[in-house]
Amino acid sequence: MITLQHTRTAPVLREPAIWAGLQVLALGMVGATAGLGPLGWAAGLAYGFATWAFLGYGMQRHRTSALGPADRVTLARGLMVGAVTALVADRAGQDVPVALVVMLAAVALSLDWVDGQVARRTGTSTALGARFDMEVDAFLILVLSAYVAVHMGPWVLAIGLMRYVFVAASWRFRWMNAPLPASYARKVVAAIQGIFLVVAASGLLPAAGLLVGLALASLVWSFGRDVLWLWNNAAVSVGESRHA
């Protein structure tokens, strides 16, 4: 989970640029070990630039230029997500170095628990940190679903696209922007998406299609429940305002 600390004397937004440079270095290491063509480089660099821009904008908005320890864990995860993105895009899902993709994705998913623990134990959790952490997770799920979809069918892409469809819908329907109550079930459903997709990507489990189908079903249930709650909450709010 990204956490941000305010330091007035620190150079503005220097650290995001450093991490963008580290992304280039990570892509260079992947290229040297597994090979990386122009499309892979383009995808990896685009991801790195988008990460730098998003974090830089958030830090400017929150008037801070210093990153906390959990921030750096999340950004380290981001470097791995950038490498996975480059590998999957470079081969268009075919002849991908599966072991390397699975290893990078598995470590990135594992560190999701670590950055959350660091943020809570240091008492440095922020809304921006939670959002950035969620965006890194969501993009990794999108890339993994795209890779698995090459082998299992385009229906798998629904896993990676569902959150983005939800966000796009919230731009049109204001009632979908209300804050949702905390839910342990939602966290479990979100966690199994990455786990099941990594298992499917590894190709080691014959029944991987069943796991991916279960992941998609649970995600549809989770989003459906949240949308229904938002709809009902909006209806209650309208009713209360009319009787006020």
UniProtKB/TrEMBL annotation:
InterPro entries: CDP-OH_P_trans, CDP-OH_PTrfase_TM_dom, CDP_ALCOHOL_P_TRANSF_CS
Any GO MF annotation of the entry: phosphotransferase activity, for other substituted phosphate groups
Keyword match Chloroplast: no
GO biological process: phospholipid biosynthetic process
One GO CC annotation: membrane
Protein's UniProt keywords contain Transferase: yes
Gene3D superfamilies: 1.20.120.1760
Regions that span the bilayer: 12-33, 39-58, 95-114, 134-150, 194-221
Pfam family, one: CDP-OH_P_transf
UniProt family annotation: Belongs to the CDP-alcohol phosphatidyltransferase class-I family.
Name recorded for this polypeptide: CDP-alcohol phosphatidyltransferase
Natural source organism: Lentzea albidocapillata subsp. violacea
Taxonomy of the source species: Bacteria, Bacillati, Actinomycetota, Actinomycetes, Pseudonocardiales
